[in-house]
Amino acid sequence: MKDLTLYTSCLEETHILGKKLGEAAEENMVILLDGDLGAGKTALTQGIAMGLGIRKRVTSPTFTILKIYKGRLTLYHIDAYRLEGHAQDLGFDEFLNDDGLTVIEWSQFVPDLIPDEWLKVSIELMDEDKRKFSFIANGSRYEKLLEALI
Ligand SMILES: Nc1ncnc2c1ncn2[C@@H]1O[C@H](COP(=O)(O)OP(=O)(O)OP(=O)(O)O)[C@@H](O)[C@H]1O
Ligand SMILES: [Mg+2]
After folding, report:
1. Model-wide pTM > 0.85
2. So what's the pLDDT on residue 96?
3. CATH of the domain at 21
C-alpha cells in the first residue's frame, strides 16, 4: 500500500488532478471516492473523464445511480449514496470485471462491490475552496497510478 496527500485550492485544480488520474488509468481499474456532500467527488470524476478524452460533461449520477461514458476507457460512474448496501441486485459486478474504469462515490455504502485492489480517495473540505485529497493505493497497478500524480 502507498499513500499520498494533496491539496487543491479551486475547482479547476481538482479537474487537473482528476485529469492526470484519467490519463494514467488502465483498463479494469476501480477508484473509490469518499467525502462529505460537496467535498468534490463528482468534480474529481469530471477531471478523470477529461483525462479519458470524454467530451460529455459528467454530472452527478445521484438520481440514476450509474452513468456510462465512452472514452479511451469506458467510464462507469456510480453514486452509491442512495443504495446503502443494496447494490448486489443491480448487476454492477458485471462491469467491475470489464475493461472500463469504475468510479464509485460513497463507496462505503456498497462494501460488496469493492474488489481486492483499488485506489481510494478521501476528500475533506478544508475551506470554501480548499480541499484535501488523501489517496491510498492498494495493489501494484494502483501504486503505479499514484505515481502519475507526483
Ligand atoms: N478545490 C475544489 N475542488 C472541488 N470542488 C470545489 C473546490 N472548491 C470549490 N468547489 C466546489 O465544491 C463543489 C463540489 O461538488 P461535487 O458535486 O463535486 O461534490 P460531491 O463530493 O460529488 O458531493 P455529493 O456527495 O453531493 O455527490 C462544487 O460546487 C465545486 O464548485
Ligand atoms: Mg457527487
Report:
1. yes
2. 72
3. 3.40.50.300
